[in-house]
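I'll show a sample.
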Amino acid sequence: MVVEEDRELEELRRRRLLELQRHLLEQERAAEERMRIEVQKQAVLRRILTPAARQRLANLKLVKPEFAEQVELQLIQAAQAGRLPIPLTDEQLKRILLHLQSGRRDIRIRRL
């Protein structure tokens, strides 16, 4: 009886270990895929943006990472569709950013 319980416990441990290993492998694959996509995205941005514009986008990413991510994707899509002058200068990027931010409402809460 005790031997059978030990075997069942060992089987449960083995299954849990396999499950954890599988989960870890999936996480590693997902991380590698994200890295691969990021490298490709940065390569495209290097082609379509001037160094000053890339620096502005990098600075924006530090402050507003989600917004910067959306801008990067929109710039890539616009460049691929031929709707963007290449290379995009810093001044042109500023105008695009101002246009995109004007459509967003910034909600601020003030304490009284």
